[in-house]
Fold each of these.
Amino acid sequence: MDKRETMEINLKQQKVISDPLRSRIIALLYEEPMTPKQTADKVGKNPGTIYYHIQQLYKHDILEIDHVKTEKGIVEKYYRAKAMVYKNTEKEAPANHVGGSQSHMYLSDKLLKELNEEVQELFFKYAHLSYKETAEQKAYEVDFRIKEYEDEERGE
């Protein structure tokens, strides 16, 4: 697995990226710089909607302009994500919190099932490894949950 670039963000930036569509845009633009139109085509959404989201991400310093092309007098800006992993330095973790992560994403039923199965396998793997380990250990509660995203605009 390749190491993902991490970027420290503030609370305002955290709010801007905490939407599954914006997370998908960030992931796509981390892999390859694209124009808003190319991004819209990839995610199957209206170019105007994607342009708005890209502008919000750019305004809040999550995206940057990778390069600009002029084709027959039309200026095309190619955006790229500055990172793939974001760490909010302003958010305080509870005293006993030692690690974890969170992600917003779109998943089909098939991918959701696969994700659940793989996480269960990881839990089993590390529980099994802990029985074999001879180093001193501490007790931890490892929590995994998937919650359906509630879109504020649709009132879901």
Note: The two ends are 35 Å apart (CA to CA).
Amino acid sequence: MTVVRPHVLVIPFPAQGHMIPLLDLTHKLAAAADSNLTITVLTTPKNQTFLTPLLSAHPSTIHSLLLPFPSHPSLPPGIENAKDMPNSLRTILLSFSNLHQPLLHWFNSHPSPPQFIISDMFCGWTQNLAEQLNIHRIVFSPSGAFAYSTFYYLWNHLPKRVNPTDENEVVSYQGLPNSPKYPWWQVSPLFRSYVDGDHDSKLVKDWYLGNMKSWGLVVNSFSEFEKPYLDYLKKELGHDRVWAVGPLLPVNDTFAAGRGGSSSLSVDDVVSWLDQRREREVVYVCFGSQTFLTDEQTAAIASGLVKSGVHFVWSIKERVNVNNGDDGDDDGCDDWSAGLDESRGLVIRGWAPQVMILRHKAVGAFLTHCGWNSVVESVVAGVPVLAWPMSADQFVDATLLVEELKVAEKVCEGEKTVPDSDLLSRVLAESVGGTGEETRKKMLELQAKAVDAIGEGGSSDKDLGCLMEHLQISLKYDVS
């Protein structure tokens, strides 16, 4: 009697905000499968270190498939991650799709190939691969259900501006819960780059439509957070195979601490500094792995922090000179940081242990770009948000937090907008000064729902179990 283990191929998109939650899901699948599942994770040479903790934790269950990152005429040599070229997402997406043929060859030569593909929503080309192989493909959305619903609407309806030059022309998402509306400049940049008749645009459109044809959808969210939008997706997709399995978080502090890049401070240094602060007196400031602040924005934030008098941790991404790949001029950084009081604040240049910072009792507010991973992490930590959406789905995320759930306050919007430092200082001071208790109360209520969702018998735990059943996570016997 031969034991045949169900086999799943996981394909993350090479952007940190996409890879991390899908790898967290992969860990959950491996752990819940009780070693009855074989998982292969696709990676490229410069991204394989992200897999190290998973491979160490599940050596008999999770394996890596290392393939060279494919070239593209518009992609500089050595680029394998969107963080290295944040303004060329479409180019990386197009280049990554050239793994179709190598993967097809791998499948056809494998003695026990996967029966399922779980791939990121930016990998819509894998729908064609799954159809060629006659297997099921499941889409993973690192964004929330609200944001994914807007993507679905855009590519399904292809709305156009009446005035092609009016960046403020409003796009109405008719049929979505609460009928959201956004000016054109706040619509998905990938969609805004679509051009009728352009070959690459057609490919991107076909891949998004491929997502809609997938056999199932997994979302990094939970029912109590986004139920109207999860219900909308089930209705529009025409099936119930939409699983909200979040919040997806690192397994433990070791996983959390080991997933970042270079930093000016160690995790121990950051935690030690926070340990010296009082409960909920610190504002954490971070705008994600792909946002570069302008000099004016940086100076405005620094001024706001100084004027507010708050304690703070500020994680700032150093600028990169795209012409030669070297770090930007450090003298500019010294200009804005010169007025900061080191006894009141901590500046982290580079990667910050965000999950650990948010969970620390000293942190009382989070100034963020509202990337979905940051949103989820703030909810689980119970930390109210000061929202400054910059681009992509961040405007939708801010709407959910500020207008619908009222667990956040919007302080600015737009990737080039410079806030008024006086107004910013007031908001910063109030966020940890006791006047935001109603917002804090609502966030703590949402935190409790998030914890319940991923606990045993919670909504996300049940959805994960349902996903496992569909993946046939049980021993199959070939008795021939």
Note: DSSP finds 19 helices and 17 strands in the chain.
Amino acid sequence: MPRLTSRALAWLCLAILPGWSSLAAQTAPGPPVNTDLPAVIDEASGLALSTREGELLWTHNDNINDPGSMERVTPYVFGISPSGDLRVQLRLEGVTQRDWESIDAARIDNREMLIVADTGDNRASWPDYVLWFIPEASPATQGKEVEASPEALLRYRYPDGPADTESMVFDPRTNRILLLTKREDPPRMFSLPADARQPFPDEPGLSDRRRLESAPVEIADPVGTMARLQPTDPINWLLLPLTGSQTNRPTGMALSPDGSTLAVLTYASLYFFHRGARSDWSEAITRPVTSRSLPRIDQWEGLAFSADGRHLYVVREGTGPDTLLRLEVPEGARSGQP
């Protein structure tokens, strides 16, 4: 079969787009609900649904638009409503912010916690990474700024060297934190026990960096290799030679409220993996049960399930319209059947 040039592929996409769009409209889940993030959130890189309030989402910025920089910044975590209203700002003290890429909300030891993952590493230059455990605050006042400090941290490294990681989630079924590498094809999943976290050093006079360096280093456990995240519709598949593999790298993941479905986000699509009652993630991630395309290829960076598990909230970097989406979860993702 002759190979198509990039120009030929582009013309082919334009030729079949009207017909495919019509078919997709008949078969795809419902259209997304779009809204804007507050202007202060201009580089959203993670998203989590509160374990305290079903109508509260937590997010954060990446860094200072310079991943890997160690320039001193004041780290914030933002609580927003599903409609994009700013409800609370947590100003974190004693915390470094190298390259924050993910956040999750979890109930650990009967306490509501936020886990922030400082795990980005575009240049594969950091020897280890850190997860910050922060007590989840209640947004008593609209737009209120609250000072907070971590309760614990978990410093870790991978067994075979640095790895850029933008996807992290807490699994309450196993009490472990799951991590998914970004710049590997296919991606690999690792895990860490939540019990490996260490109390936050609060000795007077300690610098933020010294607090981090004083913590022991845990070695992440390999879970398994994920299936290659292939484009989910003909348009994305045909555009792949033009957009490159960058669009299919995982930038976030979220676990459904019942713990059975793992959603994985890329710049172009969502993939869903189902874990049965008697299976584990090493088996489940070898094959997605279903997938759906996003409205367009963009820098989608974080996602969270709604409290009923029927929708996903997705954020992208940048400001303005459509920075926060609400998408319907495909029926196959909820049932675990392709």
Note: The radius of gyration is 20 Å.
Amino acid sequence: MVDEALTSADDELSAIADDELLTIGAFAARSRLSPKALRLYDRRGLLAPAHVDDATGYRYYRAAQVERARLVGLLRRLDMPLARVAGVVQAEGLEAADRLDWYWAQVEARIAEQRALVAELRDRLCGGTAEMDARFTVETVDIPERAVLIESRRPLVEELPTWIPESLDRLEAVARECGGVAGDPYAVYHAEVPAGSEAGTEGPVEACVPVADEAAARAWAERHYDGPGTARVQVEPAGRLARTRIVGDRVTLALFVAAFEAVERWVEAAGLEIAGPGREVFFPERVTAGPQGPGCEVAYPVR
């Protein structure tokens, strides 16, 4: 049995003898990666060694694997998560390039958001709160009692631009089957939305669409309920909102947060009290067309 195992190991080595084998140290030097990184990439299925010695556990790599190793290393220099790296290196040609482009577009969008946030923070640190609030006109509006279709989730900040419009589109399609959409759709933020590894620690966020026929909506929800995250129906009582509109071709996170804070300060100055979580109200034209596009509203229930 031992002889058979040794013969099998010898056969394996002979099969790859024509392709130069490198120790992990030599391969690390040639690929410009550390042995620690190579072990991690092996565990994640990104770059498995060509041979692992059963007795010693030593890893050996083919020289032909150097190009893939260098590609992984360069992608990691872009701070690309390992799961995304795997998607790129496992694809080929144009598909791999498209995956790289998609990732980098997300990076640039995040940087643009952070740049706007830096400008907002700089104004705040320089004591410009009054000037910042002057950008927003706050008013109150009464809302009637109404039935609302709701879909909830605990998303990350970076997921919101995709999840909210997709959820509202789904709910509006249901509302049209149940007497029609009975008001502007909105999202309710029950807590600060986290980023990165803090997923699931706060929230949730609710995507909401007022619906005309409550009975039809409840019947639909009963037929299609499939656990948490699926649509449900809730009656929103009549009340009052303090709101302000944000206009522009792009609503940044910094502007969004500043608008909420402006409403909060206005509510306090007016002698009112915030009576519920903040919300973002959308208009039928959810994609703005220019600097004076419809944008959105941010609001708080007040009493």
Note: Residues 138-302 form a domain with the Multidrug-efflux Transporter 1 Regulator Bmrr; Chain A fold (CATH 3.20.80.10).
